[in-house]
């Protein structure tokens, strides 16, 4: 058995900076304990502790860096554990009547025994899209990448945004691209998805083709955007993100097979 221990939203690590604990903190009672997966043939149990300080002698590490460093099959388990930890911490009271909820570990719901309301883990669908266009005058094909205001380095990435109530994923693609960089797109094609536990998104990855307009960054979320070809790629996002997979797919010609 391995344990993944969260104290508040902080993920505990052992002396080797591994989140897979062989022993949970002694004399600490978890608020929630449930299985979140299997790793190397062992059950992985999530432990959620309700405390402000870490137990004496323990350290924590950031989820994003741990997922980047983790073995490929462990990263989704870490993401699932983080989302469920966040879910139970933030839904301890019924949103309808205010009564304390009871965690139903069978379907991950937070149940209210007073009014019967069941709340389920929040998952927020989000589109992420790589827009492409043929090169002019025999030049190579290009893709549109953008530099967001919150990026801490000079990197560029794909465009993304949350799906709004009543909207299809394809409508969200067209709206987000128009809002963020002012261009029209066509031939919107779904490719693949990724759970993104920061804090609870489901990223739906698309390719789309340029249909018209000039690039005009909105100046709020996006401060710079430009067309790049395979020979002129800027600094790109870390490997973990689906944006990287979309860009690598473009370089490999995946979007022509969809
Ligand atoms: Zn209630």
Please explain how this structure is put together:
It is an enzyme of class 3 (hydrolase). The chain starts with a strand and ends in a 6-residue tail after the last helix. By secondary structure, the protein is of the alpha+beta class. Helix 1 (63-69) runs antiparallel to helix 2 (75-90). The chain contains 4 helices and 14 strands. A hairpin with a 6-residue loop joins strand 7 (109-111) and strand 8. Helices cover 18% and strands 35% of the residues. The chain has 2 domains: 2-90, Alpha-Beta Complex (Nucleoside Triphosphate Pyrophosphohydrolase), CATH 3.90.79; 124-257, Nucleoside Triphosphate Pyrophosphohydrolase (Alpha-Beta Complex). The longest helix has 16 residues, at 75-90. Strands 9, 10, 11, 12, 13 and 14 form a 6-stranded mixed β-sheet that branches. It has a 5-stranded mixed β-sheet with strand order 3-4-1-2-5. The chain has helices at 63-69, 75-90, 169-181, 242-252, and strands at 2-7, 10-13, 32-39, 42-49, 59-61, 102-104, 109-111, 118-119, 124-133, 142-148, 159-162, 184-196, 201-212, 222-228. The mean pLDDT is 94. Zinc ion is lined by residues 94, 96-97, 99, 112, 114-115, 117.
């Amino acid at each position: 058995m391995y344990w993944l221990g969260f104290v508040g939203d902080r993920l505990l690590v052992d002396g080797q900076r591994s989140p897979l604990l062989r022993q949970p903190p002694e004399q600490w009672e978890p608020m929630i304990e449930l299985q979140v997966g299997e790793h190397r043939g062992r059950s992985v149990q999530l432990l959620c502790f309700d405390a402000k300080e870490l137990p004496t002698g323990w350290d924590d590490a950031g989820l994003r860096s741990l997922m980047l460093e983790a073995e490929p099959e462990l990263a989704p388990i870490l993401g699932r554990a983080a989302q469920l930890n966040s879910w139970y911490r933030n839904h301890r009271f019924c949103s309808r009547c205010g009564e304390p909820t009871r965690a139903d570990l069978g379907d991950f719901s937070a149940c209210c025994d007073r009014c019967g309301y069941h709340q389920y883990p929040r998952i927020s669908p989000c589109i992420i899209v790589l827009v492409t266009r043929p090169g002019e005058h025999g030049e190579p094909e290009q893709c549109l990448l953008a530099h967001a205001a919150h990026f801490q380095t000079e990197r560029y990435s794909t465009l993304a945004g949350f799906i709004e109530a009543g909207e299809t994923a394809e409508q969200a693609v067209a709206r987000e691209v128009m809002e963020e960089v002012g261009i029209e797109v066509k031939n919107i094609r779904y490719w693949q998805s990724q759970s993104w536990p920061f804090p609870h998104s489901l990223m739906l990855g698309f390719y789309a083709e340029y249909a018209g307009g000039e690039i005009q960054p909105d100046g709020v979320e996006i401060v710079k955007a430009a067309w790049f070809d395979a020979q002129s790629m800027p600094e790109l996002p870390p490997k973990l993100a689906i944006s990287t997979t979309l860009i690598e797919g473009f370089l490999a010609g995946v979007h022509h097979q969809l």
